[in-house]
Amino acid sequence: MAQPLGVLVGIDESVHSGRTVDWAAGQAVARGTVLTVCHVLRRAALPDLPLSPGSAGESVDRGRWLVERVARRARRVERQLTVRTRLEHGSVASELLRLAAAADELVLGARGAGGFALLGLGSAATQLAMDARCTVTVVRGGPGGAGAVLVGVDGSACGQAALDYGFWFAAQHRLPVHAVHAFAVAASTAPYPGGVDARAARIVARQFTAETVEPWTRKYPHVPVRLTVAVGHSAGTLVAASAESALLVVGSRGHGEFAGMMLGSVSQAVVGYAHCPVTVAR
């Protein structure tokens, strides 16, 4: 692509699109990049019954009106921001995946109309979170901004990407970080030896979490950090903690309890049921 897309935000005619764009505009300013507002005109639901030329033209005109209206909103929210618009045709997920290859971050709403209906729970969200080449943020839950930046910790390479993003976001917005590591007492994978009891596992878990987070506490000495270790399932622990969080950040892949985070039931629980925006960091 000729131009970098910066922060790419997918929008539709949902009432939730405004909040999604506000979030994306703030991220573009924080990253020092452009904001690209994109609306995808979906193919007719019944391809054997195509729209008439007049109807197709009206759809394009409405799409152009929509992206320009949203772009004006973004400029009002962040006056120094460069905003570009794109109107694409085809599958919402396919087109956003294609464009995400040239973006720093893809921002989506958790609910929407048309192509974004049930985005937080459906196949589109899972595919975008799993396959996009850039970081993906799903704006859902409350207004955000209050509470800490909640980061899932597992020690994997993708978990490090989550810590990178989480601490950066916290520093940008002057928020604390809440680093959470969840584990099963019966776990026999590193760092837990087989047969340990819950008390011993907690000691290992807290040391592991502190050592994992320590490089970022040194890099961001002014960001307050709270560590939590919990016995239980990762998704349930993170979803519960998200009720008091400004943002939940996880890696796109992991190991242990975070293995396959964005592929199965854990993915749907975190992206679909968190009480705050969720970022899948890369």
Textual characterization of the structure:
This protein is α/β, with parallel strands linked by helices. It has 2 domains: 6-139, HUPs (Rossmann fold, 3-Layer(aba) Sandwich); 148-281, Rossmann fold. It is 40% helix and 22% strand. It is built from 8 helices and 10 strands. The chain has a 10-stranded mixed beta sheet, sandwiched between helices. Helix 5 (157-173) links the parallel strand 6 (148-152) and strand 7. Helix 5 crosses helix 6 (198-219) and helix 7 (234-241) packs parallel to helix 8 (265-273). The longest helix has 25 residues, at 53-77.
Topology:
Blueprint: E1 6-10, H1 17-31, E2 35-41, H2 53-77, E3 83-89, H3 92-100, E4 103-109, H4 123-131, E5 135-139, E6 148-152, H5 157-173, E7 177-183, H6 198-219, E8 225-231, H7 234-241, E9 245-251, H8 265-273, E10 278-281
Parallel strand pairs: 1-2, 1-4, 2-3, 4-5, 6-7, 6-9, 7-8, 9-10
Antiparallel strand pairs: 5-10
